[in-house]
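Standup notes
- DV: blocked on the single-chain target, sequence here:
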Amino acid sequence: MAIFKILVLLLLSFSCFCQAQLSPTFYDHSCSNALSTIRSSIRTAISRERRMAASLIRLHFHDCFVNGCDASVMLVATPTMESERDAVPNFQSARGFEVIDQAKSAVERVCPGVVSCADIIAVAARDASEYVGGPRYEVKVGRRDSTAAFRAIADSGDLPSFRASLDELSDLFLRKGLNTRDLVALSGAHTLGQAQCVTFKERLYDNSSDIDAGFSSTRKRRCPVNGGDTNLAPLDQVTPNSFDNNYYRNLMQKKGLLASDQVLFGAGASTDSIVSEYSRNPSRFASDFAAAMIKMGDIQTLTGSAGQIRRICTAVN
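- DV (later): unblocked, structure below
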C-alpha cells in the first residue's frame, strides 16, 4: 500500500509539472516577439475575411478535442498517415489552415524552431475572438506538436455532431475535463460564423416544434429541400460577424440554427438557466468563455521533451 501511495504521488507530481510548463510567459526569453507576431498575422487574415475569426476558434476546438491540443489537425495525409482534415467532421468544413501556416512562417522568420504550431493555433483563437469583440485572455503556451494525426479518433465521436443531444454533448465534454457551464460557454462561439445547409436542413422540413416558424421559413429560402447542401447560412442571423451574446437570445426564441445548439434551451433542459443567465449578462458570458477556452487549451498537451516543434505545421519534421 505504501508503494502504491508513493507511485500515485509521483504520477500526480509529474502531471502537475507538465501542466506547470504551460505559462503565458513561456516565450518571454526564447522568443519575446512570438505572440505579437502571431497577433499581427491573425489580425491581417481576419481583416481580409471576417468569417475567419469563427473558423480559427473552431480550428482550436477541433484540434484540442482530438487527442489534445497538439496541432495534429494541421498535418496533411502521407502514404503512412491519414489526416484529421479528411475526417467527416472536418472534411470541406474545417478552415483556417493556411492562416496558421502563414502565422507559423512569420514566427519562424523571427525565432526559427522555437514556437509550436499547437501554441499558434491556441493564440490565434484568442486573437480572433478579441478582434471581433470577444474577450482578451492570457493564453498559456509551451505546448509541443504531435508527430501523428488521429483521423480514426476524429471520426469516432470525439467531435460533437450537429445532431447531438444534450446528454451526448455533456458526456463528451465531461470526458475532456469540461463541465456543463464550459459546454454552454464554448457553444457561444456560434455567435460567429456560418454553417452549411446540410447541417441543419432536416430541422427546417420536419415540422420540428423546437424551431421558430418564421426563422425556419427564412432559412428555407437559402436551403431548398432538394439541393443547396453546401450553401451557407449565418449561425446568428442578427450579428454574424460580431462576438456578442445574441446566440443565447436566439436559443430562447427557438432560433438556434443547429439541433446541437437548440438542445441547450427548451423543454426543461438542464442548461436553461445558464443560457438565460448569459442572455442577460454578456460580461458573465465573456468571462466564462475565456475561462473555458483556457481550460480547453489544457487538454492532453505535449510538453517538455514530448512531441516536437514542427518546422512547418503541415508535416512532421
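- Follow-up: The mean pLDDT is 92.
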